[in-house]
């Protein structure tokens, strides 16, 4: 198994910056690129090499991790003459940690394989805190050999990296994750809306319903924020909408009828239309409160 | 505060029988009634007094607990010449632990108060295991004085009895509980349906998504049962449908628009129509599998 010495990191938002920092701290040589250069400064100060484009970053690296915004951004970074696939050395492992389309992950895998480059899709869960504390869950799709090579790198960023299957399986797993979140979050918000309408104290209700079979991470963590009027993004509503649409597209392509997912997409689209896309997912409660549901 | 020596117990199904057993074991004198007498036999053998009707049970008791099937059963036990309200002594505390209509709880409270009888609504969560192990959560509505009198009795049957508000508040809290369950359960089932359609191993997916922000009691407990083909009732689908309809009626009366609750009611009604009402709630997965959603 080849040794991974130099890692490229593209996409240095809140998540990527923290993840890249762990790799630098672990002693890897780190090459970084980000659309907005300033977001790389802390890493460069700590010893990372700035590369002015993905094409210039690619040849230096044994493994390259990308975590960017939308599937269109992923396409741009991977494909074309200036993309990673055209510019990486054969054998370099490409890892897309963006939550993106499963079919795009499969396309990247195929195009990269044609050049002797293994590619993994590896979206994460655990949020900014998980990235900061290196406790992310990493859901991986691709070939086992590449997964095993990349595993020590994953283990620096997260506490649980699992190979879920072939190309796209990481993205599909993340979609299952988002679907479960959608159900728990809407259930929590409707339970709270109901309780408030009934004249109950929703905080006291949470004491009764939070610990038992009605309990969920969303109920126990998001409801207190909502009730405090804290709608700051732990996770942006607009990004969740993006994820729900990816899941819905994939479900339709697989002929899976998922009415809860459809409902979630409708409500988050409505939130976005009302200008709340830059709030956290828990701000869906405001849509219920305003009667716009 | 008057001492509670004799407790009446009406409704000796799986839940009621276990709850009554704890009271007998705690040293209370216990009077029992059930539509099917055989279900009382174990308690009578252990020292409980059999009463042939609610009317004959009522005068002996300082506190009476009912846990029957549907709101219509509750009405029959409480109202009319043969009902508890007409036959209990003033001061006897009436406790309805059935999951029932909040407006019925308010009617019982008012009719009982007119005869000097305090009434509490006190539905429970925690299921058959919670009843057996005396770890139920008890959600109470009514007057504080009656709650405080009844509290030592509640504490023999559950680990958390909370007064949530006035008459009906216990039922409203239980409805909030059921709404959150509906969201978590449907989210878990759609996540699993999606994962299976994508060719993933849903058990492995659960390892990735169960512990984090997608996690819920329903996801982590019901999905393994579904995947094992275990659709035995921990909680009957038909009873959950009853609860969802109570919640939906109440929500409509309060002008609360709850689309997830509406969806849940539609799917569980469909399940019942397909003859799956006597299975557990997790059998909703079969509806998804069969494409009947």
Keywords:
2 domains, 293 residues, alpha/beta, homodimer, Rossmann fold
How is this structure best described in words?
Two copies of one chain form a homodimer. By secondary structure, the first copy, chain A, is α/β, with parallel strands linked by helices. Chain A folds into two domains: 161 residues, 3-Layer(aba) Sandwich (Rossmann fold), CATH 3.40.50; 118 residues, N-(1-d-carboxylethyl)-l-norvaline Dehydrogenase, domain 2 (Orthogonal Bundle), CATH 1.10.1040.10. Helices cover 52% and strands 13% of the residues of chain A. Chain A has a six-stranded parallel β-sheet. A three-stranded mixed β-sheet of chain A has the order 7-8-9. In chain A, helix 9 crosses helix 12 and helix 12 runs antiparallel to helix 13. The longest helix of chain A has 29 residues. The mean pLDDT of chain A is 97. At the A-B interface, strand 9, helix 9, helix 10, helix 11 and helix 12 of A face strand 9, helix 9, helix 10, helix 11 and helix 12 of B.
């Amino acid at each position: 198994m080849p040794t991974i010495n130099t890692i490229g990191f593209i996409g240095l938002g809140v998540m990527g910056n923290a993840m890249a920092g762990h790799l630098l701290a672990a002693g890897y040589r780190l090459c970084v690129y980000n659309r907005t250069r300033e977001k790389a400064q802390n890493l460069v100060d700590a010893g990372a090499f700035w590369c002015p484009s993905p094409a210039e970053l690619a040849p230096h690296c044994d493994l390259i991790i990308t975590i960017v915004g939308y599937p269109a951004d992923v396409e741009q970074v991977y494909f074309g003459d200036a993309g990673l696939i055209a510019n990486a050395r054969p054998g370099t492992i490409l890892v897309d940690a963006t939550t993106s389309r499963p079919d795009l992950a499969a396309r990247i895998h195929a195009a990269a394989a044609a050049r002797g480059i293994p590619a993994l899709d590896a979206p994460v869960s655990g949020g900014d805190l998980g990235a900061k504390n290196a406790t992310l869950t990493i859901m991986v799709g691709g070939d086992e050999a590449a997964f095993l090579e990349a595993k020590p790198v994953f283990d620096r960023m997260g506490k649980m990296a699992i190979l879920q299957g072939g190309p796209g399986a990481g993205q599909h797993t993340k979609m299952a994750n988002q679907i479960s979140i959608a159900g728990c979050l809407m259930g929590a918000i409707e339970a709270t809306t109901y309780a408030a309408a009934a004249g109950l104290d929703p905080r006291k209700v949470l004491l009764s319903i939070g610990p038992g079979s009605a309990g969920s991470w969303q109920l126990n963590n998001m409801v207190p924020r909502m009730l405090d009027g804290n709608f700051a993004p732990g996770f942006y509503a607009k990004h969740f909408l993006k994820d729900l649409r990816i899941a819905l597209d994939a479900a339709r392509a697989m002929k899976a009828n998922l009415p809860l997912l459809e409902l979630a997409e409708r409500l988050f689209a409505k939130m976005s239309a009302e200008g709340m896309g830059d709030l956290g997912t828990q701000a869906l409660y405001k849509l219920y409160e305003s009667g716009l549901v």
